[in-house]
Structures are given as structure tokens and as C-alpha cells.
Amino acid sequence: MPDFFSSSLGLKLAADRVVEEIIRFMNAEPRRHYKVTIGTDSERLSGGRADFVTAIVVHRVGNGGRYFWRRLEMGKFHTLRDRIIKEVVISLDVAKSFLTLLEKELRGNDALEWDFEIHADIGENGETKAMIQEVVGMIRAYNFEAKTKPGSYAASNVADRHV
């Protein structure tokens, strides 16, 4: 994972601190159900480069949440398809690293109830509809639950806010 994530509270945190903050948030109300989600959105820049923002969201179902995000600039991307695939690959890479840390810290803590999802910024409407099966297949190949628009808030709303 990259060096630092920004928090929704304005702090810069290393990946292990993000995990600590998520666990602290979940332990504040351990009887609640949580959804931990990761999603990436991008915006094309000049010269074919692209700005990618990845969000890690912890949602206390029915009662708010917190999020952490980081930005990467990469290039060159010639098509929307290339950018969407890169968004998913970034989310998968972050998820693998992040979940390793989170599961290590939560080992033995069976009191917390949480689900994990990867959110992709694609949907049935618009230019990305032809990619849904491919993208969902990529995510499921890693045994992660996949969400697309309109349910992919980590990518479509949270990450999009910072692109």
C-alpha cells in the first residue's frame, strides 16, 4: 500500500494507523454491524495521464462512518476501459494489503461483525455498462464481494469527491 492516506478528519496516516483507526471506530460500538469497502475513481488529466483516488470506508450500518483516501497520478491511459481496469487493479492491490493488516489485528476478536466489499465505478447506464461482467469477474476472482453503481459508494461518491 502507498505510504499515507488522508482521513476524513484531515489527518495523514500510514496504512497500519488506518487499520488502528478503523478498529477503534468499530470497537466504539462493537455490537453494531460494519461494512468495510474499498473503491477507486479516476479523472483523465492532460497528456493522457490520470489521477486515481482510492477510498477505504468503514460504515457503521445505520449510523455513519469514516473514510480514508489517497491519490496517485499515473499515465498514460488512452481509453476509458484502460482507466477503469486500472481503478479495479488499484482497489484489489490496496484490498489485499489492507485486509492482511486488518485481519491480523482482529485475530481472536470474534465480537466484531463486518463484511468487506470492493466498489467499482461502473454501472448499467453509461459508457461502462459493457464492462460490468469483466470487472465483477476480476473482483470475484479474488473472492471479494463486488458492488457496482448505484451501490458502489466508496468509488462513486467518496473517492469521486477527492478526484
Give a structural overview.
It holds the Pfam family RNaseH_like. This is DUF458 domain-containing protein. InterPro entries: Phage_KVP40_Orf299 (IPR007405). Helix content is 37%, strand content 31%. The protein is an alpha/beta fold. The protein has one domain. Helix 1 (15-28) crosses helix 2. The radius of gyration is 15 Å and the shape is globular. The model has no long low-confidence stretch (mean pLDDT 94).
Chain-wise SSE layout:
Elements: E1 4-7, E2 12-14, H1 15-28, E3 33-44, E4 50-60, E5 65-74, H2 80-106, E6 113-119, H3 132-141, E7 145-147, H4 153-162
Parallel strand pairs: 3-6, 6-7
Antiparallel strand pairs: 1-2, 1-5, 3-4, 4-5
Helix pairs in contact: 1-2
Record keyword descriptors for this entry.
single chain; DUF458 domain-containing protein; globular; 163 residues; 31% strand
SSE class: alpha/beta
Q: Major beta sheet, specifics?
A: 7 strands, mixed
Biggest sheet, spatial arrangement of strands? 2-1-5-4-3-6-7
**In total, how many domains does the architecture comprise?**
1
* Contiguous runs where pLDDT drops below 50 for at least 5 residues: none
Spell the H/E element sequence: EEHEEEHEHEH
Describe the structure concisely for a colleague.
InterPro entries: Phage_KVP40_Orf299 (IPR007405). About 35% of the residues lie in helices and about 30% in strands.
